[in-house]
Amino acid sequence: MPPGAGADPELDRLYALVSQYFGLFAEPMRLKIMHAVCDRELSVNEVLAEVGGTQANVSRHLSQMHRAGVLGRRKDGNSVYYRIADENAVLLCRTVCVQLAARMDEARAADGALSDATVERFMTGAA
Q1: For residue 42, what is the enclosing H or E element?
Q2: CA–CA–CA angle 119, 103, 121 (5° rounding)
Q3: Mean pLDDT for the chain?
Q4: What is the number of helices (H) and of strands (E) in the chain?
Q5: Average pLDDT over residues 62-82
Q6: Which structural domains are found in the chain, ordered by start?
């Protein structure tokens, strides 16, 4: 172990928080949800229509993302609407998705396959 490694409890707490935050995006369904709501507020039913899955599963992920502060929500009658509450989460996800999608597009081009420009799917609303 390098000198001083693990000797800073505050830094250790930060690393634990960062790991927990990144872990939130380690689930494909939560990434689909992020993509669906990154540019607009959607009801739970609209999110379901965009991402597929069961209502119970999607609702569980929405709740986790809300508790983590990534999504905001509001109730309107019997409907619940979700929106992005943490724009940094959008920036993080969009950056990683664009980079990995570019690699996918490059690999398709190298194989001579026609690409549907995967990167373009993640550029909607990008500044």
Answers
A1: strand 42-43
A2: 15
A3: 88
A4: 5, 3
A5: 97
A6: 28-85 (1.10.10.10), 87-127 (no CATH)
